[in-house]
């Protein structure tokens, strides 16, 4: 009898020891040291070239054209044909931190040839919208945030304006009008295009263009604490700081990406997995057979130690019901995409700590949860979404790699259905089939207007 009591006492003492060891390991993980001022945890890059291609496709499908009021060019009598403005190009350009620039080219021409090209710059501060846990970056321009008070005429405008004046001078006066008068007419025409005509364009054509090119970037669904926006010569860069207990932030960006991409630190990947478990997005409990179950005994946790070059990923399993046990496995992994399938390979693993009997297979658990945490990151990244002018692009993850403690994803945005643009007053959205007809660029039926300027004025 006495021996039985001693045995039970030793067993109880052992269980108590195990429980203290498990609690200590769990507390150490929960209270791990974090890097102060770590920087950012997630980075999204969008090459300007990708966005500019989408703008060009939208304008090719639905050209924007508007008839313009003809100016008075006296004192000579000039017959001015109908003139119209058509948006030829809009592209993104780099700007100061927190802002983006749009460069807009608008061609003004008559039925015969170009009159002038107007260059307008719109600079905007993208804004963030948050709703239902989703953060969206909105980039767009309108009449209220155009940088240019007056648009600039393209360098070749002097030649094209002279050509227009020469075409419009009546046949009977050709070669007889003094150069000084022709230069004055050219100056009046240029001033009209950058003045009254531009004001009409700004309130109609350019406003509609802003709607057509308005971009929204739905950011990865992570707990966002702060978002910073900048641009390089070729990229829009969006960097996110989460409110997760991430050990180390991203390294400085090389800013040489050629594709749309999302990068997360290894520590952010681990903490996103923990966050998903804590918030019930991922199963919180598992049986010893790695089956999710509310009545399971085991709870997984993750960590990432960049300093441990051999095994930076850490996978824990804590038994919190029906006994006291845990294990910790360190892993060095490789990640890739084959087709649509994410492949996670454990190149090396090591059982780094354990308490109590090995009641579960550590290798199987490690593979299961390591793959699950990285696959969850892929799912989060795949929800990144780009919309241009109401046209939502389909996101596909086409590449993945672990490089220098960062999980890097490459995205492809496949075009979705084009959104229709409703014309407004005095503005024509030109159907595709009409683009072959040069006269179709005029928003109203062509007519001639004879303008006579009083020489006394």
Account of the 3D structure:
There is one protein chain. By secondary structure, the chain is of the alpha+beta class. The chain has two domains: 26-41 and 244-414, no CATH class; 48-215 and 422-451, no CATH class. The protein contains eight helices and 23 strands. It has helices at residues 2-30, 48-61, 157-168, 179-194, 196-203, 205-213, 266-278, 362-382, and strands spanning 42-47, 64-68, 78-81, 83-93, 100-109, 114-124, 127-131, 134-139, 152-153, 215-218, 224-231, 235-242, 260-265, 298-304, 313-319, 325-338, 341-355, 385-388, 391-392, 394-403, 406-414, 427-429, 448-451. The protein has a six-stranded antiparallel β-sheet. The chain has a six-stranded antiparallel β-sheet with strand order 9-6-5-4-2-22. The chain has a five-stranded antiparallel β-sheet with strand order 7-8-10-18-19, covered by helices on one side. Helix 3 (157-168) packs across helix 4 (179-194) and helix 7 crosses helix 8 (362-382). It starts with a helix and ends in a 6-residue tail after the last strand.
- When the domains are counted, the total is 2
Q: Any low-confidence stretches, pLDDT <50, length ≥5?
A: 1-14, 429-457
The class by helix and strand makeup works out as alpha+beta
Q: Any idea what the shape is?
A: rod-shaped
What is the tally of helical segments?
A: 8
Radius of gyration: 33 Å
**Looking across the biggest beta sheet, what order are the strands in?**
11-12-1-13-21-20
The count of DSSP E runs of length 2 or more, i.e. the number of strands, is 23
Q: How can the largest sheet be summarized?
A: 6 strands, antiparallel
């Amino acid at each position: 009898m006495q021996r039985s009591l001693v045995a039970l006492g030793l067993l109880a003492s052992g269980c108590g020891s195990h429980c203290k060891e498990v609690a200590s390991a769990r507390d150490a993980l929960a209270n791990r040291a974090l890097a102060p001022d770590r920087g950012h945890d997630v980075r999204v890059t969008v090459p300007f070239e990708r966005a500019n291609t989408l703008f060009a496709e939208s304008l090719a499908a639905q050209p924007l054209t508007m008839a313009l009021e003809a100016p008075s060019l006296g004192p000579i009598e000039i017959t001015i044909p109908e003139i119209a403005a058509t948006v030829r190009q809009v592209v993104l350009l780099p700007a100061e931190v927190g802002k983006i620039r749009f460069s807009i080219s608008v061609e003004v021409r008559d039925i015969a040839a170009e009159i002038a090209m107007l260059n307008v710059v719109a600079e905007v501060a993208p804004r963030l919208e948050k709703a239902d846990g989703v953060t969206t970056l909105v980039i767009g321009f309108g009449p209220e945030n155009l940088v240019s008070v007056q648009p600039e005429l393209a360098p070749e405008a002097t030649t094209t304006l002279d050509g227009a004046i020469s075409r419009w001078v009546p046949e009977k006066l050709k070669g007889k009008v003094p150069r000084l008068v022709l230069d004055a007419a050219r100056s009046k025409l240029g001033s009209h295009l950058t003045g009254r005509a531009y004001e009409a364009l700004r309130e109609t054509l350019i406003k509609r263009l802003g709607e057509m090119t308005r971009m929204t970037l739905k950011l990865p669904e992570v707990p966002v604490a702060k978002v910073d926006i900048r641009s390089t010569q070729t990229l829009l860069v969006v960097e996110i700081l989460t409110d997760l207990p991430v050990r180390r932030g991203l390294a400085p960006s090389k800013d040489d990406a050629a594709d749309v991409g999302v990068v997360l630190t290894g520590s952010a990947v681990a903490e996103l997995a923990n966050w998903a478990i804590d918030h019930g997005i991922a199963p919180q409990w598992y049986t010893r057979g790695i089956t999710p179950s509310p009545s399971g005994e085991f709870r997984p946790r993750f960590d990432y130690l960049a300093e441990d070059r051999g095994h930076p990923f850490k996978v824990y399993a804590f038994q919190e019901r029906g006994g006291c046990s845990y294990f910790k496995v360190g892993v060095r992994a490789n990640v890739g995409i084959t087709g649509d399938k994410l492949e996670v390979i454990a190149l090396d693993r090591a059982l780094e700590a354990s308490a109590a009997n090995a009641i579960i297979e550590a290798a199987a658990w490690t593979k299961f949860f390591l793959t699950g945490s990285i696959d969850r990151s892929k799912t989060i990244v795949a929800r990144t979404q780009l919309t241009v002018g109401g046209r939502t692009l389909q996101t596909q993850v086409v590449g993945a790699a672990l490089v220098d403690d960062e999980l890097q994803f490459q995205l492809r945005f496949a075009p979705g259905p084009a959104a229709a643009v409703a014309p407004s007053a005095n503005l024509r959205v030109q159907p595709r089939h009409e683009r072959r007809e040069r006269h179709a660029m005029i928003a109203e039926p062509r007519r001639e207007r004879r303008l006579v300027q009083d020489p006394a004025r």
